[in-house]
Design goal:
The chain is 61% helix and 9% strand. The protein is α/β, with parallel strands linked by helices.
Length: 594
């Protein structure tokens, strides 16, 4: 569907406001054109006097006729100002409303998409759609829509007046119009792909800048400022060249159609004058036509600018609508799950999963990360999962949260297939502490209470104490009101991890997942956190993923993963006795074996 039709379809809930704005825009333009007609009538009054056009309506006195014209002029100018106020306000309000709703809907839809969608696209590109493209649409609705309507109103109103008042001159005067429209169509077809390229280049430079600002510490540490400046220069230069190609074609439009406009004006001036000399046309109508033909033809000079705004807006609409059309591949289930009723029994039954493919089938060139893996976690128990990097430990967690969809098998909580559960209810009953901790720009208290937005300060402090975070927080400049910076950059890795643990504790979920939750803390802090976790994990299903085996040695059961399979299981002592992979890892970490 054409992007303009998509835009109209999206704005269907505001049909009455759109029509009101359209009508006010058209009436404003008609009032703007009326003084030209009144000038012609005034000339007619002065020349023809009692035989003028107004005399036919019963106003025979010339002075009275001029008085009537003066009153009509005042009235029309007043109406023109009123309609301008109404349409300008209506279009701007409509632009703000549609911009707001489109951005919120696009962002909400973006949040519903699976994680693999974000892995395949840069943050800068998505930001360009949510910000630049939607702002471009707002700019078009603010002024471009009214300009198009006024242009069309001028063409039909003035063209109609020509055909009624002087059909013999009109045909010659408006002859350039089809040529101008044909030229505009040619330009549009050539401009559209160039503006699509401009929007793409805009997304690329936005992506580059976002990545560089996020990784500024890495850039500085590797003294890569000059290299990154050159890369930004290349992206910016590509954007400039893309815009230049569009501008070169757009700028050529005005000089080309100028000749057609001048031809129409000269035709009216000459042939209309001949008609007056031959008494085929009154002087008043001739004056009106000579004046109004400019209002008919000169708007075509702005057609290039109107087309420029229109094509830029349609390129942006295409990108925004393309985002909204992206299918949600992990739909929410329709079964509710009461948080209080969750016992926390987790069952993974012969699951198979590979990254980057759909749920229908597996591809030979994308080997599965997990293959027919089965795992039973009793309610209220603590299990540990260990294994080499890339063995699939963290993948299990992401599948449990339905960040990705399994291709085969079934995952259930308390015997309920998680694919049938409402996603909000499913994720609400799971507390996840990721090894890659993310903190939002805000205070310490706000980050701990994230997801538990109604928590009191006392509850926040209690969670911080359990995660061994309270002591260092009290030493911060504003304590719990200290701003942590973007992504928590003002804090150390260990401090960020402790805040993440506090955030999960405050959520108080039936199922707690600790994915390398203490990897960035020192041994003393880890020991203190482990002591607190013994209290926190009581009567709560806990899944602890660890490289440091000391963090899970007290688990009820430990599972060892290797290449997507569970190869060993048992308690810490049982696994040491078995002399298998776990025993080998333990001996390496404890320094017994190198």
């Amino acid at each position: 569907m054409h992007p303009f039709l998509r835009l109209l379809q999206y704005a269907k809930n505001y049909r009455s406001q759109v029509w009101f704005a359209v009508i006010c825009t058209i009436l404003n333009k008609l009032c703007d054109l009326a003084p030209s007609f009144l000038i012609g009538v005034a000339v007619d009054v002065v020349v023809e006097r009692e035989d003028s056009l107004l005399a036919r309506f019963g106003v025979t006195d010339s002075v009275t006729q001029l008085g009537v014209l003066s009153f009509l002029t005042l009235l029309i100018w007043g109406l023109e100002s009123l309609f301008e106020f109404l349409y300008d306000r209506q279009w701007r309000n409509l632009a703000q409303t549609l911009q707001h709703e489109l951005r919120i809907e696009a962002y909400s839809h973006l949040q519903e998409l699976e994680l693999s969608y974000f892995e395949d696209r840069s943050t800068g590109l998505l930001l360009s759609i949510l910000n630049d493209d939607i702002n471009q649409l707002e700019h078009f609705l603010n002024s471009g829509a009214a300009e198009i309507l006024q242009f069309l109103t001028t063409v039909f109103a003035v063209g109609g007046a020509f055909m009624v008042l002087a059909p013999q001159v009109a045909l010659i005067s408006i002859l350039p119009i089809p040529i101008i429209f044909w030229g505009a169509w040619i330009f549009q077809n050539r401009l559209a792909p160039r503006y699509a390229d401009v929007r793409e280049k805009s997304g690329l430079i936005s992506s580059r800048l976002t990545n560089n600002l996020t990784g500024i510490a890495t850039i500085k540490s590797f003294t890569a400022e000059a290299y990154e400046r050159d890369r930004v220069l290349m992206e910016s230069e590509a954007y400039r060249r893309s815009n230049a190609r569009a501008i070169a074609l757009s700028a050529a439009f005005f000089p080309v159609i100028r000749f057609a406009i001048v031809a129409g004006f000269i035709a009216t001036l000459f042939f209309g004058g001949v008609a007056v000399l031959n008494n085929q046309l009154s002087v008043g109508i001739y004056g009106f036509l000579v004046f109004i033909v400019q209002m008919l033809l000169w708007p075509f000079a702005s057609l290039s600018q109107i087309m420029d705004e229109y094509l830029r807006a349609m390129a942006s609409v295409n990108r925004v609508m393309g985002l909204l059309d992206t299918p949600i591949t992990i739909p929410t289930g329709d079964r509710a799950l009461s948080l209080d009723a969750v016992r926390g029994e987790v069952e993974l039954d012969a699951i198979t999963f590979a990254y980057g493919i759909g749920t229908s089938s597996l591809q030979e060139n994308r080997p599965p990360v997990l293959t027919h893996l089965s795992l039973h976690i009793p309610a209220g128990k603590t299990i540990g999962i260990v294994g080499a990097t890339g063995s699939g430990k963290s993948t299990l967690v992401k599948l449990l949260l339905r960040f990705y969809e399994i291709q085969e098998g079934c995952i259930s909580i308390d015997g309920i297939d998680i694919r049938t559960l409402n996603l909000y209810d499913l994720r609400r009953c799971i507390g996840w502490v990721s090894q890659d901790v993310f903190l939002f720009h805000g205070t310490v208290a706000e980050n701990i209470a994230y997801g538990s937005f109604n928590a009191s300060l006392d509850q926040v402090i209690h969670a911080a104490k359990l995660s061994e975070a309270h002591e260092f927080i009290e030493q911060l400049p504003q304590k719990y009101d200290t701003i942590v910076g973007e992504r928590g950059q003002k804090l150390s890795g260990g401090q960020r991890q402790r805040l993440a643990i506090a955030r999960a504790i405050l959520k108080d979920p039936p199922i707690l997942i600790l994915d390398e939750a203490t990897s960035a803390v020192d041994n003393e802090t880890e020991a203190a956190i482990q002591k607190s976790l013994q209290v926190i994990t009581q009567n709560r299903t806990t899944i602890a993923i660890a490289h440091r085996l000391s963090t899970i040695r007290n688990a009820d059961c430990i599972y060892v993963m290797d290449q997507g399979q569970l190869v060993e299981s048992g308690t810490h002592e049982e696994l040491l006795t078995s002399k298998g992979l776990y025993d080998n890892l333990w001996r390496v970490q404890s320094g017994v074996k190198t």
